[in-house]
Amino acid sequence: MLPLLTAQQIREADAYTISNEPVSSIDLMERASKAFVGWFVNHYPDRKESIAVYCGSGNNGGDGLAISRMLFEHGYTQLDVKIASYSNRSTADFDTNLARLIQLAIPITALLPGEDLLQENAAIIIDALLGTGLNKALSGDYEKLAKFINGLSAGKVAVDIPTGFFADGEMPVDAPVIKADVVISFQQPKINFLLPDSAKYVDCWQTVNIGLSETFTNSLDSPYQFLEEKDARALIKPRHHFSNKGTYGHAFIIAGEAETMGAALLSSSACLYAGAGLTTACIPQAGLFALNSSHPEIMAVLRQDDEQLNIEWDKYTAVGIGPGLGKKAIALQLLSDVLERFCNPIVADADALNLLAENPILLKKLPAESILTPHMKEFDRLFGEHNNWWQRMQTARVKAAELGINIVLKNDYTLIITPHGKVYFNSTSNPAMATGGMGDVLTGIITSLIAQKYQPEEACLLGVYIHGKAGDELALPDRAYVVTPTQIANRLPATMAKLLA
Ligand SMILES: NC(=O)C1=CN([C@@H]2O[C@H](COP(=O)(O)OP(=O)(O)OC[C@H]3O[C@@H](n4cnc5c(N)ncnc54)[C@H](O)[C@@H]3O)[C@@H](O)[C@H]2O)[C@@H](O)CC1
Ligand SMILES: Nc1ncnc2c1ncn2[C@@H]1O[C@H](COP(=O)(O)OP(=O)(O)O)[C@@H](O)[C@H]1O
Ligand SMILES: [K+]
Questions:
Q1: pLDDT-derived band of residue 244, with 50, 70 and 90 as boundaries?
Q2: May I ask the CATH architecture of the domain 18-218?
Q3: 196 lines ligand 2 (CB under 6 A)
Q4: H-helix or E-strand spanning residue 319
Q5: How far, in Å, is the centroid of ligand 1 from the Cα of 134?
Q6: For ligand 2, is residue 376 a contact (CB within 6 Å)?
Q7: CATH classification of 231-236+243-500, choosing from 3.30.930.10, 3.10.310.30, 3.40.1190.20, 3.30.70.940?
Q8: Which candidate in 35, 175, 249, 308 could, as Cys together with 317 as Cys, close a disulfide (CB 3.0–4.6 Å)?
Q9: Do 182 and 204 contact (CB within 8 A), yes or no?
Q10: Strand-pair category, 346-348 with 318-321
Q11: Helices 261-273 and 485-500 meet at what angle, rounded to 10?
């Protein structure tokens, strides 16, 4: 896991690294700037391109000055440095880098308080005005400058974080931020990059390693973690010789109505392909033909709207409930029944979540470690409206702890929130996966992993990772416009095999 630190913790990590590793503050800045330049030279190889580097007078500005010097040394000839001199304070490393820069033949202009901004014709703007030291929304001269830069058609590359963007915490709506085409972020993505509210400010981000002390960053035990391939590799378990279907559990998927049988087929087929030993789908009578003709491996428990069901809950090692289930009396009866009679953690999605929202008393009956897999709207139906994702994430932490459950809050970087207060951001999946039915597949996968005796938290982490990874493997090589949930389900065995290779 890559620990994701808050701006405050990043400052602590910088300070710890400087005092405990053989690197001085100025050399750490040199290292960060070099990492930025390494990326820049690869992506903007044209040495004749006109580049304006906008610098503040803190350490982000110091990076900007060092970057300008290094670009000059790499042969970039059309450089222009602008220093926002809106405060008379500067950091020592900024001063050192300014002294180094003025030795070179690069034009440097100071932007003074209240002054009109000069015309800007550069093709590329490097934003090194403010970094993680931002302590409030931009106002005054900085706000004016941000709006001016946003009005330019130049490509914009931000150093560490776009100026005005909050690394963590709630951002005021419509805070002035310099919109970046690319952000080159030091060491880790900033937490707010991973929440959808960042979409209007950050087109794309990449990280470069600057060698902050891992001993220290790990010791902070940050609640926020980034889930990567090595983590999925550590979680996935191989299948053994002499194992049989009994070894891998019996999953029960309660899903589908006559009109939404597809949801039941998607979740139960994903359950099958993710490796459950046996899969039984609880579906309406009308869906039997579809189930048998598409997936003869899957067994059925048939239900009719007006019938009392007698389910042998003991037969099953995992239960997933909700995809396409509808909200009729039979659906509520099934949900109440599972909560009453099934002792192990369950996976609740879609209509099961809507039923829980309408009958909040049932939330308290969720077996410990159960998993809810809401998207944003389902989440807000369950736990109230939220104005932004930071708030929503904090509510999820509170509710997960209060109810003793895992919450998988689906999005681009799906969040897995555990009852112990951890928030894992998933690193896989892509916009080609924005198709109805994708969530049904995820429910099937997680249920399947629980049937195979993964702990609920592990099932969430591995399930969300492989779901997105299968989507990436299908979409990214040919830049596919869309991938379908059926394709994802079919792909799972290969995706899982690769993680074991
Ligand atoms: N040794 C280090 O600490 C390293 C820091 N690095 C860089 O340093 C940056 C952080 O530097 P600093 O902590 O100096 O902070 P910044 O450069 O982000 O900001 C400098 C100053 O701006 C002022 N400020 C904050 N919010 C403002 C606002 N809304 N309007 C106007 N002024 C505002 C504050 O007084 C703050 O001290 C990182 O983002 C990164 O780019 C890197 O060089 C890596 C090493
Ligand atoms: N734009 C996107 N970028 C990355 N992943 C996406 C995107 N859109 C959807 N996904 C993935 O697809 C899933 C969508 O789930 P959900 O909204 O519940 O789908 P549905 O309700 O259609 O079944 C999420 O798990 C998410 O990871
Ligand atoms: K910046």
A1: confident
A2: 3-Layer(aba) Sandwich (3.40)
A3: no
A4: strand 318-321
A5: 6
A6: no
A7: 3.40.1190.20
A8: 249
A9: yes
A10: parallel
A11: 10
